[in-house]
Amino acid sequence: MPRSVQLPTPRPSVESLIEQLQMPKARQKRLRAIMDEAWAELEAKKRASSGAAIVPEEKLKNASAAD
Amino acid sequence: MPLPPIDPDAVFLNIPYDEEFQKLYLAYIVGLYQLRLVPFISSGLAGGERRLDRILALIQSCRYSIHDLSRVELSGTPPATPRFNMPLELGLTITWAKLHPKRHTWFLWESTPRRLQKSLSDLDGSDPNIHLGTVEGLLSELRNAFAFRDAPPVPGMVAAYSVVESQTGKILAEAGTHNLYAASVFKALCFAALDAARRMEGSSQP
Known about the structure:
The structure holds 2 protein chains of 2 kinds. Chain A is an all-alpha fold. Chain A is about 75% helix and about 5% strand. The longest helix of chain A has about 40 residues, at about 25-65. Chain A starts with a strand and ends with a helix. The model of chain A has no long low-confidence stretch (mean pLDDT about 85). Chain B has a single domain, classed as 3-Layer(aba) Sandwich (Rossmann fold), CATH 3.40.50. Helix content of chain B is about 45%, strand content about 15%. Chain B has helices spanning about 20-35, 50-60, 85-100, 115-120, 135-145, 155-165, 170-175, 185-200; strands spanning about 5-15, 40, 60-70, 105-110, 130, 145. Chain B has a 5-stranded parallel beta sheet, with helices on both faces. In chain B, helix 6 crosses helix 8 (about 185-200). The longest helix of chain B is centred in the C-terminal third of the chain and has 18 residues, at about 185-200. Chain B is globular. Chain B starts with 6 loop residues before the first strand and ends in a 6-residue tail after the last helix. Classes of the chains: A mainly alpha, B alpha/beta. Strand 1 of chain A pairs parallel with strand 6 of chain B, so a sheet runs across the interface.
């Protein structure tokens, strides 16, 4: 069996790990803007794919309304 | 001589710095931060005769180390030469851990089952974590190797990886380099991985 360890809990907070990076605030802001874009794109994709899933149902409703 | 201070969450990554390994390199960074562990690499350390001392000091300051030997092979460019840096750093680590077993735990990682028995038979009896050369395999093995209650599920870790991976071009541009292993890029990737972890806190999917 490969080695495995049990990590102590609670784990460090994300904020404390960000502080540990000692990154200037200006750079953090630039990188956060890049990540904001990534998450916005992901949300847009999610919306688009759920929208695509709704379309056939909408079509069905329209078709039955026309009948 | 007093022993150096140790970071209980630090993980020294002994990995190849080549193009074929980039995805797994990024997966290590994202995966370790998902588990709230802190990755360290030697690529940012200055060269010269004291480089080995600096690497040893880094190993000594880390509670854990991962030695990924999946790309220990002959170089493609002539003369074909095996890579010795990673086995050397593994040897240093094993010695350190033998002397101070409570201060350091090391892990061996490979892509292929049984390859290690062929390349490093002295380590027979040390089962490596096999990641199969895939991001999913690596993240799954990380979660197995570093267990804790409420650890994030693997699909969430993969999703975090995908988001960070989608932005590597912009992160490289921000750092003004094409080298994903450059110290400034490594730091930016750490930040991006933490940003993903922060956004995913409390949910299993982004």
